[in-house]
Amino acid sequence: MYRSLALVLPATLALAGMVACYTADFDETLSDVYYCQTSTECGETQTCFQFRCVDDSGPHVRVTGPESLQNVQFGTATLTVNYTAEDFTVSDSNAKTEGEGKLVVSIAGTEISTTSIISQGAQLDISSLAPGAHRLLVQAVYGDGTPYTNPSATGSAVFYLEAENPSRPQAALVSPLPGYVHVLGEALDVTVAARNFAFVESGEDCRVEDPCDPWGPDAAMCLPACAVVPQGHAHVYMLSDYPACLNNAITCNGDYVLSLRPSESVGVSGTTATARIPADRFTEAGPVTFSIGLQYNDHLPYPNQSVIIYDQITIEVVER
Fold it and tell me: How far apart, in whole angstroms, are the C-alpha atoms of residue 245 and residue 251?
């Protein structure tokens, strides 16, 4: 099993200018010591978290419903939440007992009340959510409400809440999740998805003139004579004022850090694409806002600047 040395040599060695070969007996059970990029590089009870192998002993929560990128119909007031919880006993006790506690369900990044759940099929009130992509979180906590700290103690699922017109395209930043902590000096894989829209290498564009909404109630009055094809690619931006900056005198449309089309992505599968942001794009610690915007094949916003189809999250960049 591969391990990168993430230990800092003692100051006395550095001061002595020692350049001789350094060896050590590696203990793969140590937490937050060894560098990693995937969990397969870590020990059996560990996971790769913030590029370090960390102890993942504790509850392992996985969301089984809604399914990943499931579409929820417009006007749905409640969302049925299902999950699995390993190494964890769900209880209504308020005591802080190891291996026991409650599960708290919430929608990340949205002002919505959280609900403690102790059974399958719990109902979450989503009547206040706007159409678009949302991230469901299910987190294991002790009976007194203290969260379990191992990474797998929180399960998640990204789902769509469809618009009034169910054919309207929607975009989702699948990974990372809001609040993700990224380390300076590391690249970051970003996964995006789209609904009613396909990622393609190239194609013919039938442009909808601003401010026509092709899926609005007055679409028949403004649609072009050509067929509007829901396909193109996506841009990922690291801009705090997107999409407002598209209307600046000098538009920010070309200031993207990733273009997600098949030839420029790590992987593309129909309506999902993954690409890597280079490490040098992260220049300082602090919050970073990611936005994904759907684009025509010629890189202009789809379907126009008045009807922007986008998704947005904020992560935190830290120094290691």
Answer: 6
